[in-house]
Design goal:
about 60 residues; mainly alpha; about 70% helix
Length: about 60
């Protein structure tokens, strides 16, 4: 597995999955609005990382 693919997998497992599980499990009703917003920012940050580093590298520079 390439380093980039491993990074993307770790971002999904460590950043996105817990954030998505937080809302799917219904835990947002037990916590404050600030925590819900921060988990939303976590999800958006994970998506941004996947989009930023998920694009294929430009092979013409090599």
């Amino acid at each position: 597995m390439k380093n980039r693919n491993l990074f993307l997998l770790l971002v999904f497992i460590c950043v996105l999955a817990p954030g998505i599980h937080y809302f799917v499990a219904g835990r947002q009703f037990d916590h404050t609005t600030l925590r819900n917003v921060l988990v939303g920012v976590q999800i958006l940050g994970g998506i941004a990382l996947l989009l930023l580093y998920g694009r294929k590298a430009d092979r013409s520079k090599a």
